[in-house]
Design brief:
Layout (H helix, E strand, L loop, with lengths): L1 H4 L3 H18 L2 H22 L4 H20 L6 H14 L3 H18 L5 H9 L4 H18 L2 H13 L5 H10 L8 H13 L1
Helix pairs in contact: 2-3, 3-4, 3-5, 4-5, 5-6, 6-7, 7-8, 8-9, 9-10, 10-11
């Protein structure tokens, strides 16, 4: 999950392959299933970047991830359900199904409330903002930012601040600089490096 959130899908593929190999060699059926589920998630997210105009494929991936969520609920494996459900929402949004996306995002927050799993709430609020327009979208991003800061969820804070910059939100560059400043100076990943470059260009 961490590699996926960092945007390192190649690293995530390698890690899942290692997990699948260990599970196969030792007969760990549960972990083999988890590896297969994670690989489905990675393939689905890859399609958003590689096939952004292929609505049918993206909708098919969304249905597959919704199936993964159903399996996890059946097995009462809830830890990453908010993330997986939100991922299904991203795929619905990418397939031009905003109503389906909104439903999945609401479901992700409902799961978080029911299970006390609020680690992904700020990101879900950010994703919801993409279905809104104007001041409503900006207000949603500000709510997401407040939550990320309260939770100390700095990677999500960074992502939300970048969205505010893209919307020309008031003090957005200041918010982005504050988020970047919370990382160690030797920390690097794509979103963080891009944010640093943006701040350097802005002067």
């Amino acid at each position: 999950w961490t590699l996926i959130e960092r945007g390192d899908l190649a690293g995530a593929v390698a890690t899942v392959a290692t997990l699948a190999d260990i599970a196969d060699r030792h007969g760990f059926d549960f972990w083999a299933l988890m590896a297969a589920n994670q690989r489905a998630m990675i393939d689905a997210l890859s399609a958003i970047d590689t096939r952004p105009d292929d609505r049918a494929t993206l909708a098919s991936h969304a249905a597959a991830i919704e199936g993964v969520c159903g399996t996890w609920r059946m097995l009462d494996v809830g830890l990453f359900l908010p993330f997986a459900t939100a991922t299904a929402g991203r795929l619905r949004a990418a397939s031009d199904d905003p109503a389906g996306a909104a439903a999945r995002y609401r479901e992700a927050l409902e799961i978080a409330d029911a299970r006390g799993l609020h680690f992904y709430d700020a990101e879900v609020l950010r994703l919801q903002s993409q279905l809104l327009a104007g001041d409503e979208a900006t207000a949603q991003l500000c709510a997401a930012l407040d939550l990320a800061q309260t939770q100390g969820a700095v990677p999500f804070e960074l992502r939300i601040a970048r969205d505010l910059v893209a919307r020309d939100g008031a003090d957005a560059l200041t918010l982005l600089a504050a988020a970047v400043g919370r990382f160690a100076t030797d920390a690097h990943y794509l979103e963080l490096d891009d944010a640093r470059a943006l701040l350097a260009t802005a002067g």
